[in-house]
Amino acid sequence: MAVITAAAGGQSSAIQAKRPLFSTLWSNYPVKMAAPDVYGLVGGQALALYKENPTGYANACALRLSRSLNYGGMPIKQSTKGYKVKGSDNKPYLLRVREMITFVEQNLGKADIAFKPKNNEDVSSQLREKKGIIIFKVSGWGDASGHVTLWNGSDCGDSCYFIHSTPNVRTTDIFFWNLR
After folding, report:
1. Pick from 55, 53, 132, 144: which is nearest to 97 by CA?
2. What CATH number is given for 16-178 in this structure?
3. Contact 82, 58 (CB under 8 A)
4. What are the record keywords, sorted (predicted)?
């Protein structure tokens, strides 16, 4: 997170910004990295669980964002509620989307932009040239309630789930937190 110095009338004060810098999160995000490699990068209990049950732990989106947050200025604490495991760096990592949503909301407040996507044009007009954390709530997936990732202004850090080609799977809501 950034420290901003405000000055007026010959006095100055340091203000701690509540949001991490997008560039710091992005540089610590395993961009387009396959799930097995993300588990290998994090190591520790996360990797052990993946090796024990690769199918059950095939989804790594919350792990990716956890790593980015841990090294990007908004660390996940031991006291954070939810299913978390330790990486080889002894840092806690969240593994479930619904708990990552709670963590992001508790730390950044309500989403700056929230909408129900109708088509790809709708999405691009809402998020064009913005950067931040994006969360997709998805119905119809058997193993996940959604997807969390970073949005760089034109693409997601791993996968985007705006519109689905599978009829029984659909993105019901998109939540976006703008970061500078």
Report:
1. 144
2. 3.90.1720.70
3. no
4. Plasmid
Give the pLDDT band (50/70/90) at residue 160.
confident
Q: Distance (Å, rounded) from C-alpha 17 to C-alpha 2? A: 5
pLDDT in tens, 9-38: 888 886 665 799 999 999 999 999 999 999
Kindly list the distances between the CA atom of residue 132 and the CA atoms of 50, 51, 52, 110, 144, in Å, as whole numbers in the listed order.
28, 31, 33, 13, 22
Residues 43-63 have pLDDT tens digits of 999 999 999 999 999 999 999
The size of the chain, in residues, is 180
Residue type for position 73: G
pTM reported for the whole predicted model: 0.87
The residues spanned by each domain of the chain are 16-178
